[in-house]
Design brief:
The chain is mainly alpha-helical. It is built from six helices and two strands; from the N terminus they run H-E-E-H-H-H-H-H.
Length: 165
C-alpha cells in the first residue's frame, strides 16, 4: 500500500512540474506585447484552467502561480511577477475548487470564474502597483485573454475528459 501512495505522489509531483514548465512555455511563446499596458497578451491560462479541472485546486494553484510568474521573470516583465504569482495562483485554486467532477456546466462556470479572476486581479494589481491608466487600459486585453482561455480550456477539457475516461 505504501508503494502505491509513494508512486502516486511521485507521479503527481512530476506531472505538476511538467505542467508548470508547459504553462511557462505557453505563456512565453504565445506572447503578444500590447502597447500602453506594459504587459502582453498570451494563452498560458489554458494550461492553468485545464490542469485545475483535471488535477484539482492544489495543483491548479501551483501551476498557476509558478509557471506564468517564471515566464514574466524570464521575459523581463519583473514588475508583473508578484501580481502574476498571486492572480494566477488564485485562478488555479478557484477553478479547481469550484469544479464538480464530470459536470460540464460546473467546468464552464469554474473556468468563467477563473477568467473573472484574471480580469479583476490584474486590474487591482496594476491599479495598486502601476497607475490607474495602465489598469484601465489592460481591461480589454485581459478580458479577451480570459474569454479565449475559457473557450480553449473547455475544448481541451471535453477532449481530455473523454480520452482519460
Amino acid at each position: 500500500m505504501q508503494h502505491v501512495q509513494t508512486r502516486s505522489t511521485t507521479f503527481t509531483l512530476v506531472l505538476t512540474a511538467v505542467l508548470i514548465a508547459l504553462a511557462t512555455l505557453l505563456t512565453m511563446y504565445t506572447k503578444i506585447p500590447v502597447p500602453g499596458i506594459r504587459g502582453y497578451f498570451n494563452i498560458g491560462d489554458v494550461v492553468i484552467m485545464t490542469s485545475a479541472l483535471l488535477l484539482g485546486r492544489k495543483q491548479g494553484a501551483y501551476i498557476g502561480a509558478i509557471g506564468p510568474a517564471l515566464a514574466d521573470l524570464i521575459l523581463g516583465y519583473i514588475i508583473f511577477v508578484p501580481i502574476t504569482f498571486v492572480v494566477k495562483g488564485i485562478e488555479g485554486y478557484l477553478v479547481g475548487s469550484l469544479y464538480r467532477k464530470d459536470n460540464y456546466m460546473s467546468a464552464l462556470m469554474a473556468t468563467i470564474a477563473g477568467g473573472i479572476t484574471i480580469v479583476v486581479g490584474y486590474f487591482v494589481g496594476e491599479y495598486m502597483f502601476m497607475d490607474p491608466g495602465v489598469a484601465y487600459a489592460g481591461l480589454l486585453t485581459n478580458t479577451i485573454q480570459a474569454v479565449m482561455s475559457v473557450i480553449i480550456s473547455m475544448i481541451l477539457y471535453v477532449v481530455l475528459r473523454r480520452r482519460l475516461g
